[in-house]
Amino acid sequence: MIDKRFLEELSQQISRLLPQAEAAGEDIKNTVSSALQKGFSKLDLLTREEFDAQSAALARAQEQINRLQADIAALEAQLDALEKKQQEL
Question: For 19-54, what is each residue's pLDDT tens digit?
Fold first, then answer.
């Protein structure tokens, strides 16, 4: 979902770029805003907040993966040590 403030700012910028848009006023701004909103809704975009939340979740998952990999490496080392002891016996 796109932030409405972003769409309003974008439509205002487009309106400033078109001299005819100044004369047509609010109708052009509404039309441009509506068209932009419709176009962006088809793109399946994320808001900054949604992106940041997903990035944080991904970082937490990566930390957990790193911890689990370290645990596995430690367990494998213990297993190797036990196997060596058994071979010595």
Answer: 665 566 677 777 877 887 887 778 877 888 999 999
**Which of helix, strand or coil describes residue 69?**
helix
Q: Which residue is listed with tokens 């430690």?
A: 74
List the chain domain ranges: 1-45, 46-89
Phi and psi (nearest 5°) for 11?
A: -65, -35
Contact of 7 with 36, CB cutoff 8 Å: yes
pTM of the entire predicted model = 0.52
| 88, two tokens | 């010595």
Which parts of 1-89 are beta strand (E)?
Answer: none
